[in-house]
Automatic annotation (TrEMBL):
Origin species: Rhipicephalus microplus
Alphabetic keyword roster: Signal
Range of residues in the leader sequence: 1-18
Protein name per UniProt: Putative conserved secreted protein
Keyword Signal in annotation: yes
Domain of life where this protein originates: Eukaryota
Length: 96
């Protein structure tokens, strides 16, 4: 039993050590590995970068123009995805 536990720990460290969006190559558009955990009113994505299905681990960006939620000063502001980042719309920015 101890060997199995050590094997799991080793594999976890091997797969997850230093795995970040910056270190992992971006793929062309692909299927999501997981459905977004949080959907705000079912219309927005929370992040504009997501994990792709399958191995090796890789990430992809949402299509430009996909609506997203940007959190500014504790409030949710409507934005859109552009180059993997959630940009706040100019109309929302001028109201604050």
């Amino acid at each position: 039993m101890m060997y199995v536990t050590l094997l799991y720990i080793f594999l976890t460290l091997l797969l997850c050590n230093g795995l970040t969006v910056d270190d992992t190559p971006l793929a062309a558009y692909c299927r999501r590995a997981l459905r977004p955990p949080v959907m705000i009113r079912g219309e927005y994505v929370v992040t504009c970068v997501y994990l792709c299905e399958g191995l090796p681990f890789r990430f992809s960006r949402e299509h430009d123009g996909t609506r997203c939620a940007a959190f500014i000063d504790g409030y949710t502001t409507q934005g859109y995805c552009k180059d993997g980042e959630c940009k706040v719309q100019e109309a929302a920015r001028t109201k604050q």
